[in-house]
Design goal:
The chain has helices at about 10-25, 30-40, 80-95; strands spanning about 45-55, 60-65, 70-75, 125-130, 135-144. The chain has about 140 residues and is an alpha+beta fold. It has one domain (about 10-144). Strand 4 and strand 5 (about 135-144) form a beta hairpin. Helix 1 (about 10-25) packs across helix 3.
Length: about 140
């Protein structure tokens, strides 16, 4: 398997990601959301955790915990996918809805660019997550 040569340090990844996400949201006119997320981040109300799991194929994921305790777990496989994943994560948080379904599935991804799939389901949030020996992520879901 190819090494993730483009990855830098955990904090650099997070810093770059937030910068890109905020820039994109601002370009799209979501100024209030940018302001609210920025303020929450700086006062510690949003926590960001970076995971690197060494199972076959390799993968990385970012987990965002919002003040309402609802979580978006986004899996990434390549650095160039990170920004799209983060944008999706914030969109999910804004809707207060988030769930993950088999992130390694390549279905409906004809160009195979993304190594994750996010499914939005009303009234469901991620409660727990883990993975078995084979590379499939599973989640417990509970009503909001």
């Amino acid at each position: 398997m190819e090494a993730h040569q483009s990855f830098v340090t955990k904090q650099q990844l997070i810093d770059i990601a937030f910068d890109k996400v905020f820039s994109r949201l601002a370009r799209e006119g979501h100024y209030e959301l940018v302001s609210a997320l920025g303020a929450a981040l700086h006062c510690g109300k949003i926590t960001v955790t970076y995971y690197c799991e060494n199972y076959p194929g390799g993968a990385d994921c970012l987990m965002f915990c919002m003040p309402n305790k609802k979580t978006a777990l986004i899996m990434i496989k390549h650095a160039d996918v990170l920004f799209a994943a983060l944008h999706e994560a914030f969109s999910i948080m804004q809707l207060r809805i988030c769930t993950i379904q088999n992130p390694l599935t390549k279905v409906d991804q004809p160009d195979n660019t993304y190594a994750f799939r996010v499914k939005i389901a009303p009234d469901l949030v991620v409660h727990k997550f883990w993975y078995k020996k084979h590379p499939t992520w599973l989640t417990y879901l509970k009503a909001a």
